[in-house]
Amino acid sequence: MYTQIQSFLEKIFKQTSSILPELVLVFGLVVLLLFAILKKKNTLFNTIVYGAILISGIVASFYLPQENVSFIEFKRLILISALLVPIVFPKPLFLEKSTEHAEWLFLMLASSLGLMMMISATDWMILFVALELAAIASYILVILSWKKDSYEGAIKYLLFGVLSSAIMLYGVSWLYGFVGTFSLEALLTIHFKNDVLLYVAFFMAVAGVLMKISAVPWHIWTPDAYQIAPVPVVAFLSVAPKIAGLIALYKIIQAYSNLISEIETIIGIVAMMSIIWGNLVAFWQKNIKRMLAYSSIAQIGYMLIGVVMGVVALNALWFYLCVYFVATFLIFTLVEHYEKQYQITEIIDFKGIGQKDIWGMGTMMAGLITLAGLPPTAGFTAKLLIFSALWENYNLKTSDISLWWIIIGLINTVVGLFYYLKIPYYAFLKETQKQILPIPRYLMWVCIAFSFLLILLFIKPSMILG
C-alpha dihedral over 322, 455, 282, 274, to 10 degrees? Predict the structure, then answer.
């Protein structure tokens, strides 16, 4: 009897050890939910508990069995992004008149858990459930400011999310009808004749994932959600869902590459549409958060190169995501500060700020030129690695779609300079009568650390490329 119990426990431990970080987050969700129910209003205590849970999840990720460490670095990046939110935004504007501190940390943790499950998913059903867990938490996070003018954007995000989920589920049911399995791993050994309906089913099935990463044509919710959501939430949603969505999409593409020969063309068209639309519309934006929303749509077009090119470009994608993560958090840290202190939300309102707050605008400029892909920041290296992988793929396959991708990507990188440098132009070259104080010391050192990291990764990219 003792032997049977021991073998049963060993079997359970072996099966659950592969999802140890996720189990830590589940435990954390229970704890934070209890705090929310008991109305624990000690924000410092709640934040410490939240941070301890995420740090425990990161530590647990280093103790996984060797066979279960695939994509673990991407999971750690999601955990780090969730951990940085209360550190970089210690007193967010939307919580000043709210007592829902434990609730918002609970939702952040729930969204992180869903995103990590998306990376772990090996079949369509687990992927769908994980995506919905992350999405439902995101819908509530977006409306946490509870402003009257935010309801329209939040409802648009919700309705669009529900629609894409329904289309995704319908497409998955078609794919199951074609291949007879929900498993992605089983598809690697299946060969199937190309069929127009298979292409339609595949595009519908990836709709939910494309919506999560804000790729065209599933990007419509993004500008409104960015504009109305609290800045800490926007910073998190700019990074974490993209990480999970891109890895999920990578696994789907690898699984269906034997069945659908034109996957590269399908995703390539989506990527080029995202790059063109994101850059062109961002150029005309007046609100900084809407500009950054369209910028993120354009950035996803470059990241999709790393997804389609397979294992060769996975390192380039990892580097690009790390750089994008640091630059995005740097920019949104300062967007939150200027909105909170001076009600600055429009690009033109940045007039003259750089002359009075050199550290604030100087570090923001470092983040913006990183997204633009200019040296001496790691944004240049990230784009160089991505385009190198694309050029290598073109030389191997002589694929027309790869050549067009390179041309459109390079042209739009130049277009991006005009709107990324618009803020530094107003900040440093225009005058203002506003009384602007330098950013607080704590915030200044956080921004300097981010900026230094972006320059250091340009000088020594091997730090994370390994």
Answer: -40
